[in-house]
Amino acid sequence: MLPDRPALSPERKHLQAGEALFRQDQPVRAVYPLRHGGIKRMYESALGWRQLTGFMLPGDVAGLEPNDAPQFGTSAIALQASECCVVPLETAKRCEEDPAVHAALLALLHRDALRQRELLVTIGSMKAAQRLAMLLLDQAAEHRRRGTDGGEVMLAMTRNDIASYLGLTLETVSRLLSRFASVGLITVRHRQLRIVDEKGLSDVHAEADRITLRGPDPA
Amino acid sequence: MLPDRPALSPERKHLQAGEALFRQDQPVRAVYPLRHGGIKRMYESALGWRQLTGFMLPGDVAGLEPNDAPQFGTSAIALQASECCVVPLETAKRCEEDPAVHAALLALLHRDALRQRELLVTIGSMKAAQRLAMLLLDQAAEHRRRGTDGGEVMLAMTRNDIASYLGLTLETVSRLLSRFASVGLITVRHRQLRIVDEKGLSDVHAEADRITLRGPDPA
DNA sequence: CGTTAACTTGAAAGAAATCAAATCTGGTGG
DNA sequence: CCACCAGATTTGATTTCTTTCAAGTTAACG
Predict the structure, then answer these.
(1) Where exactly are the structural domains of chain A?
(2) Where do transmembrane segments lie in this chain (chains A, B) (predicted)?
(3) Is nucleic acid strand C under 7 Å from A39's C-beta?
(4) Chain A neighbours among B 45-64 (CB < 8 Å)?
(5) CA-CA distance, B205 to B135, in Å (whole number)?
(6) Domain A12-122 carries which CATH code?
(7) Nearest to B47 among A45, A66, A206 (CB)
(8) Which residues touch strand D (CB under 7 A)?
(9) Looking at domain B127-206, which CATH architecture does it have?
(10) What's the rounded Cα separation, in Å, for the pair B191 and B159?
(11) pLDDT tens digits for B92-142?
(12) DSSP A104
């Protein structure tokens, strides 16, 4: 008797690169566990200033807003062809009755809040090289946590996206990537990135002035 | 028969300037509506980087954490002699059963999240003068919302606090305040501040390059 | 009244942004 | 299949902004 309601295969949504999954200030009607691809979160202030606030990978849940916010706090935009589930808010609420699910969602929200604070302190007080090192280490850790490839990371975002996330310009990001590569911390060819010396990157992240834009003075 | 349980006058806590109401990572056992004084919120990353994430005024509720986080995400430190109520978590939970209270608390949390995003975009993409203008306008709005004095604001925080909040150095903040004063946007004498030209400050906040550290070129 | 912390101001150095070309890439249409 | 194009990326030169370093000055507090 059940009509075509896909009981075990909930609704999916496919996105092209650049397409918005949802936009800031729209009412929250569903949450979107990401299956394939990658998504960036973008905040736009009333005056038009934009800032990327995070990148999401498969396994992350897009649209999860803290404290049941009625509207999305950021836009979610696909970095590449992507696919996600669509879990209507009502369904999500029902799932939350399971304490284990509830706890898991809270854990996601807490981690997100922590990340937000880390991003703030990073942008607020670290030099460009340290900020970039932080992002690279973070990306590597995320990929590792998912078991995706070992070391070789395909960046889904552009230099501009990275710059917006870190509060820098795309030129600075490009230069720093080249610089990191030239001192053997990474190898990078456009979007293909490999972390060669993770310990070294950690050092850059921790200690200021280890890597700057200009190379060692030959004088 | 009731022992000395202050039914109508809940427990109060007094703080001296510089004293911590609670510290980051401590378990949340109570929330603290601020009655008098002022408090700064400070986040410290694992590597020791610090960042002020906000200032609280009487009427704000310190210790309110998003999504029932079990530990405080930031430390709360008194900027001056202050006094706050102490509402044990259990009591707070009971209050929350009142839908109106619940909604009010959610509203506070949502506003806080919005502020966090605004701070991020401000630090991430604005010039120093714009950042400071934002803070001053924000402070003025907060004071106005509370009906506190008209225009004349007593800043509770040091230049260093402002700098940490905005991702600048104290010298830059000091210079900019002087500069704002010299072009007639504000008057400032140490902590005593008055906004003379709010529209002008808005313009500085919106349009880049209206005010820079060096004055007009006399050439 | 003196000591200390906060604040202001100047000069110099340094970091990142801006301006300006090249170069590379993936995808498109011929 | 290949030439071409728009967007992405790299790299260099220059400019601008902010920090850093260094004194002074002022204000708060015991």
Answers:
(1) 12-122, 127-206
(2) none
(3) no
(4) 45, 47, 49-51, 53
(5) 9
(6) 2.60.120.10
(7) A206
(8) A 158-160, 170-171, 173-175, 177-178, 188, 190-191; B 17, 127-129, 167-169, 171-172, 175, 189-191, 209, 212-214
(9) Orthogonal Bundle (1.10)
(10) 9
(11) 999 999 999 999 999 999 999 999 999 999 999 999 999 999 999 999 999
(12) H
